Amino acid sequence: MDVKLDPSRDDLPLLANTGHILVKHYVLDLDVDFKSQIIEGSIVLFFEPGNRFKKQSSSIEETCQSESNEACKFRMPEPCHNPVTHTSTFSSKMGYDGFSVCGKGVKDTSGKDGNHDNWEQASGISSSKYCCDTGNHGSEDFLLVLDCCDLSVLKVEEVDVAAVPGIEKFARSPTLTVVSEELRNQIIRELVTLPADRWREQLDYYARCSQAPGCGELLFDTDTWSLQIRKTGTQAATDFPHAIRIRYRTKPQGRSVTWTSDQSGRPCVYTMGSPINNRALFPCQEPPVAMSTWQATVRAAASFVVLMSGENSAKPTQLHEGCSSWHYYVTMPMPASTFTIAVGSWAEMKPETCLSNDLATERSLSSSEADFRYVGVCGHMEYPCRFQNASATTQEIIPHRVFAPVCLKGACQETLLRLIPPCLSAAHSVLGTHPFSRLDVLIVPANFPSLGMASPHIIFLSQSTLTGMSHLCGTRLCHEIAHAWFGLAIGARDWTEEWLSEGFATHLEDVFWARAQQLAPREAQEQQELRACLRWRRLQDEVRNSPEEMQVLRPNKEETGCVSDSGSSVIKHGLNPEKAFMQVHYLKGYFLLRFLAKRLGDDTYFSFLRKFVHTFHGQLILSQDFLQMLLENIPEEKRLELSVENIFRDWLESSGIPQPLQRERGAAAACGLARRVSAEVAKWIRVNRRPRKRKRRETEEVFEKLLPDQLVWLLECLLEQKTLKPRTLQSLERTYHLPEQDAEPGK
C-alpha cells in the first residue's frame, strides 16, 4: 500500500515507522509548571525491531518530507561539557543541565520547528552532509520516525544501559564482554522479553535504565507531524540504539493537553481526547499496532493531585517543601494514544456513609455465569492478565475512587458515588472479568467537549452528568465502563473503524444500565426500545445533515488495516472538525449490533460476546474478526442470508441508512412508552392551540409523569411544531421542572 500523505487535508497522518521498529516501553519523567503552562522533562523509549525491518528505510521519501518539501536537515549536537557519570545520583531534575543544549539556558529559544537552529552553525558542520539521501539507499542511515507535534525537542541521546548495576545478568552471550552497541541492545532485547511473572523486576530495571547516563547524542529534526532521529553509520533497525532518551518540553498551545481552570477557579491541565492524540504531550508511535507499556513520574506543586492511566493508586511523595512527585505504571500493552493525565486541585470524594454494595465482592460463579471462565491460554502478547487470575474473574466491583473540585462534593455524593458499584457489577454480569484492576473517575472542567471519555484505569465525566436525576449519569457511566472491554482491552487495528469501540459501548450501555437498575425483563425491553426510537430519529437527522463520505463506517474498504512498508498510514477524516460532532459511528454501529442480537436472541448473543472478549482481549481487531467469529457461532437456521460480505455492503461500506435497518424500523410497532409520549404530545399541541381566553367548559389537561428518555422525545416532537407559544413553554417548564432535569443525553 503506497500511502500518499498530505497533512494539509483533513486526514491525520501516522508517520511512525512501526514496520521497522517498535516501542515496547516508555519511561516519562516530567515537571508540570502552571505558571508557564509547560510540561518539561524526558522520555526514555525502549525498542524492539519490528517484523518488517529492512537494512535501510525504503520509505524515507514519504516519511521524511517536511510541509515545505525541503530536504531533511539533521541537527549536529554540540559537545556536551556536563555529562552525567553516576547513575546513583542521577535524576531528571538533578541532571537538568545534562539534558539541555549545552551553553543554553532554560528559556525556549527554538524556532517554529521546535529545534535550536544554531546547532549547525555552532558545530561548524554543514547540514547538507546529513540530508536524507533518498536516491542512494545502499549508504543510507536507518531513520527512526516518531509521531510528534507542537513539541520543543531539546536533545536526543543514546542511553548507556550497560552502566546500570546488576544489568549484566541480561547479557546472555559470554562473548560480549566489552561495552558496545551490540551489548546494550542485547540487554534491552532480554529486558523487553521478560516473562509476565517478572513484571516487577522488569519495571524496576526500566526505571534504573532510564536513569543511566547518556553515551552519545543522536542527530534529529522535526517537521509538522514527526520527529526523525538517526545515528550516523547505523543502517539497520536491528543495530539502532534500543534505548534512547529525548529531552523536550510541551508548548502552551499544544493540542494534546488543555490548560484551563476547574469549577472552583483553580488551574488544571488534562488530556481531553484531542484528534492528534498524545503526540503533543510526548514523542511516540501513534499507530495502534505499537502496543506498549509505560511508567511515569510527574512532579507538581504540592497542592496539586496527579491522576493518570495506571494500575496503581498512586500517592504523592514529598520531594521538598512545596513539591510532590507521583508515580504510575501499566503492565498491559496498549496504544500510546490511550495514555491520559490530569493535574489539578482535585479532592477525593467519599460517601458520607458506607454503601452496602460498595464492597469488592469475591464469590463463586453461578451456573448462568459458568461460561465466563474458559480453559486455555490467552491469545495476546504476554503480560500479567486478569483473565488468568481466578480471584479477578469473580470480582464484580473493582476498587474505585472519585475526584472532583471541592465545590462539586455534594453533587458527587448525591449522584455519582452511589452509581459506580451497581454499574460495575452490571458490566461484570454481562461480560465477565474486568480487564483493569482499578478505576478512577474524574469530573473534568466545564470546557470538556463531550459527556465522557474512557482511558485505562480512569474515566473523565462532564459536570453535566451530575445535574438532574441519575439517568444521564448512569447511562454515561455505563457507556464509559463498556469501553474497558471495547476500545481499550479490545482495540481497533484501524482507527477508521471507530464503530468497533463506540457502537459496542452504545449498545452495551443500555444493557448495563437496565441491570444496574435491576429492571424486570419486560421493563428493560420497553426502555431499550424507547432509546432505540430516539436513536433512530438522531440517525435520520445525522444522515440528512452530514457529508455522505463521513457516514461510512469502513471508509477504507478492502484496504482497512493496510499500512505502508514502513508502517505509516493516514486516519481518514481524522482532522475534520465536523467529525467531533458526528454520531454516525455510535448510531449505525449500535443498530448493527442490535440487529445481530435480535437475529441470534439475547442469550445466545451475549454468551457469544463473552466468548469473543475472552478470545480477543489484549489484541487489536478488524470488523471481520468480530463478524467471522459471530457467524461461525450462529446456528445455520438463524444465519439465513447473513455473511461478512453482506454486512460489509449493507452496514459498513455504504452511506445513508442501511437497508435492513430501514425495513426493520418501517415494520416495527411503537413500544408502550413511545405510545404514551405520542399521547402526551397530542395534549400539548391542544394546549398550544388554545386561545388565551378559554371557554369555562374546557377541562384542564392532565399530564402523565415521564421517564427522562420519554421527556427528551416529547420535547423533540414539540420542536417540530411550527410555533410554540411562550405560555406553552412556561407551562412545559413548570410541569416537568425542566431546570432540574438531566442534560440531553447526546452521544
From TrEMBL:
An example Gene Ontology molecular-function term: aminopeptidase activity
Residue ranges of domain Peptidase M1 membrane alanine aminopeptidase in the record: 434-651
InterPro entries: Aminopeptidase_N-like_N_sf, AOPep, M1_LTA-4_hydro/amino_C_sf, Peptidase_M1_dom, Peptidase_M4/M1_CTD_sf
Pfam family, one: Peptidase_M1
Name of the protein: Aminopeptidase O isoform X13
Gene designation per UniProt: AOPEP
Organism taxonomic ancestry: Eukaryota, Metazoa, Chordata, Craniata, Vertebrata
UniProt keyword terms in alphabetical order: Aminopeptidase, Hydrolase, Protease
Entry keyword annotation includes Metal-binding: no
